[in-house]
Design goal:
Layout: H1 9-32, H2 37-52, H3 54-58, H4 64-81
């Protein structure tokens, strides 16, 4: 795909689904907090930091693909939990 020959079509599809799920969670947080952009940004930063720093140090044997799966699952589980 494009300039990344090591990325398959299902990894690209998984990325799109993860992005949509996390965007929905972030939108709900933004709307439920009365339009608080700092809280939505804090949510985004906390996910970025967790999956880039502690995740790799806590689970060094897991690949980056497993991180993507964990992010997709956590975003998908969070969707019904946020009214």
């Amino acid at each position: 795909m494009g300039d990344r020959p090591d990325v398959s079509w299902w990894q690209a599809a998984e990325f799109v689904v993860t992005t949509i799920a996390f965007s929905s969670v972030t939108t709900r947080v933004f709307n439920r907090t009365g339009g608080s952009l700092p809280l939505a940004m804090l949510l985004h930063v906390s996910f970025n930091n967790h999956f880039s720093v502690p995740w790799s140090e806590m689970f060094p044997w897991l690949s980056s693909g497993n991180t993507t799966h964990a992010f997709l699952i956590s975003s998908g589980v969070s969707l019904p939990c946020t009214p």
